[in-house]
């Protein structure tokens, strides 16, 4: 079955939550950051790490000594990787209870009329699902099953449910950290007719989906090699620009 729509879902939540994007998001931004810290020293001009090593360690030590020269030449401490920050997704999209014949069909074999019929002329149910991702709900693993433990204690909802983002090539477990709903048009009875939604999701890395996403990324990296030529590989070699300048290639 081809993917024809995007979803925010959690089938294990109580009650199960499935939000289907009525239209493709107008904006999807992805942000990933990694924290670095400065090393404690600039290093030394002497090849101390080379002398302290033996065997293949001499090569490794020489490489490290050469790297330290860069920090000494510019008087700037090197950076060491500390820890990564979760991937953040920001989405902007709309919900509309009106029939929109001017919107092209977004699904193979289905037109906008089918989407209008599916939403039933009301966007309140979809808004309720979105709001549920921002309010505490029962977790069947940590909350409901805890009642059957020896303590037999009742566990009220403690945290909002995880939100699985399925959109295009993205399939990740996330937590919704921000939700902004702007009602831009009302029906005569003051129920919402159109809403513009902005939300922020942070990847929940304690999930199977993160591991699968890493594998998928590695596969796509392998496919990228087919888009490269020999010159791309040569230009990517460290120092290639300096060699070209020296020999005016």
Write the layout of secondary structure elements.
Elements: E1 7-10, E2 17-20, E3 27-31, E4 34-38, H1 48-52, H2 57-74, E5 79-84, E6 88-96, H3 112-119, H4 124-132, H5 140-144, E7 163-167, E8 170-186, E9 192-203, H6 208-224, H7 230-235, H8 240-247
Antiparallel strand pairs: 1-2, 1-7, 3-6, 4-5, 6-9, 7-8, 8-9
What portion of the residues fall into strands of 2 or more residues? 25-35%
The counted number of beta strands is 9
Whole-number average pLDDT? 84
Global morphology:
elongated
Helix/strand-derived category reads alpha+beta
Secondary-structure element pattern, one letter each: EEEEHHEEHHHEEEHHH
Which sheet architecture does the biggest sheet show?
7 strands, antiparallel
Q: So how many helices?
A: 8
* Helical residues, percent: 25-40%
Number of domains: 3
Low-pLDDT segments, ≥5 res:
104-112
Between the first and last Cα atoms, what is the distance in angstroms?
A: 52 Å
**Within the largest sheet, what's the order of strands?**
2-1-7-8-9-6-3
Oligomer: single chain
Radius of gyration: 27 Å
Structural summary, described in words:
By secondary structure, this protein is of the alpha+beta class. The protein has 3 domains: 7-32 and 86-205, no CATH class; 38-84, no CATH class; 207-249, no CATH class. It has helices at residues 48-52, 57-74, 112-119, 124-132, 140-144, 208-224, 230-235, 240-247, and strands at 7-10, 17-20, 27-31, 34-38, 79-84, 88-96, 163-167, 170-186, 192-203. A 7-stranded antiparallel beta sheet has the order 2-1-7-8-9-6-3. Strands 4-5 form a two-stranded antiparallel sheet. 12% of the residues are buried.
């Amino acid at each position: 079955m081809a993917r024809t729509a995007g979803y925010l879902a959690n089938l294990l939540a109580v009650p199960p939550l499935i939000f289907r994007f009525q239209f493709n998001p107008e904006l999807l931004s992805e942000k990933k950051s990694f924290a670095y810290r400065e090393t404690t020293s600039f290093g030394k001009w002497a090849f101390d790490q080379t002398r302290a090593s033996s065997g293949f360690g001499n090569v490794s030590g020489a490489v490290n000594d050469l790297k330290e020269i860069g920090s000494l030449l510019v008087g700037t401490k090197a950076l060491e990787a500390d820890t990564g920050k979760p991937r953040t997704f920001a989405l902007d999209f709309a919900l509309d209870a009106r029939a929109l014949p001017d919107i092209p069909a977004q699904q193979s074999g289905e037109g906008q009329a089918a989407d209008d019929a599916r939403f039933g002329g009301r966007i309140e149910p979809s808004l309720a699902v979105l709001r549920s991702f921002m309010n505490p709900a029962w977790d069947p693993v940590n909350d409901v099953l805890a009642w059957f433990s020896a303590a037999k204690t009742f566990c009220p909802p403690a945290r909002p449910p995880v939100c699985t983002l399925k959109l295009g090539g993205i399939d990740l477990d996330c937590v919704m950290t921000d939700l902004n709903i702007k009602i831009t048009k009302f029906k005569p009875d003051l129920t919402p007719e159109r809403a513009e939604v902005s939300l922020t999701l942070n990847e929940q890395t304690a999930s199977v989906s993160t591991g699968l996403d890493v594998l998928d990324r590695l596969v796509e990296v392998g496919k990228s090699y087919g888009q490269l030529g020999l010159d791309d590989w040569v230009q990517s070699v460290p120092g290639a620009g300096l060699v070209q300048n020296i020999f005016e290639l």
